[in-house]
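Aggregate trends can hide what the representation actually does to any particular protein. In the encoding step, the backbone of a single protein was reduced to a row of integers, each denoting a local shape. The record that follows shows the chain in one-letter code together with its fold in token form.

***
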Amino acid sequence: MNKKICNGVIIIFAFLLMFLVTFPKQENTSIATGEDDLQITDRIPILTFHRIVPNDVKLEKYPDNQWVGSVDVFAEMMKYLYDNGYQTISNEEFYEWYTGKRQFTKKTVMITIDDGFYEDYYLVYPIIKKYGFKATSFVVGSRIREVTHPYDKNVTAYLGRDVIEKVRKEYPKYEFQSHSYDMHYYTKNKKHRIKSMSHNDLKNDVVRNREFGYTTMAYPFGDYNKMIEEILKEEGYLVAYRFTPSDYATRSSDQYAIPRIKINGRATLNTLKKWLNY
């Protein structure tokens, strides 16, 4: 009996020794398994793009224009997000996170595109839809026409009401929100229009966009003041976004001046990776 017990102990010991040799202890499991990516985040990268055009148009017409990016680079960035397990969130989801009602991991981003160029529909939207992502197009109300111009890479045009209504029904994950009704230009003294507008002017601009049912706003050129913040709050907007300097959104950010990250027309995939590595 004692001999059987002794043999059993030897067998168990040998098995344990083999297990330890085969599966060495990992000293830093978060690095080895990628668990750092699953940590609850205290900030959200809100990525901001502007006009997106075909690569040949970018190279020929806008090689040094920081406000115009290549669709090839944009597609590469979206593929990277998808391949690496990033989730994208809506404005409402961001607001829920901002108010502490939900949590997200570090692999969370918002995707926003400013100005409402018609490439948003013809070039950007198919890529967003392909990966099942959520994104927001911030459009200028006064530029919206009834019908969107047929795509022509040599034409500059903006989104029409037809496309906005179609996408809202077809793919609600792609949102349309306010970039003002008619603030998106410089005045004669080269100031952002918002800086010269009275309280009534600002109020009227916001009210004119009511028909579109917006709940958030991205300030034209990222510029804002306390008057517009107060008006948006009165109108029931969830949040509003500024633009510069580029920074992460946190729960301590001003509710009506949430920072976004500028992904300009000269950005590469490495630019995106740097912002995601925090």
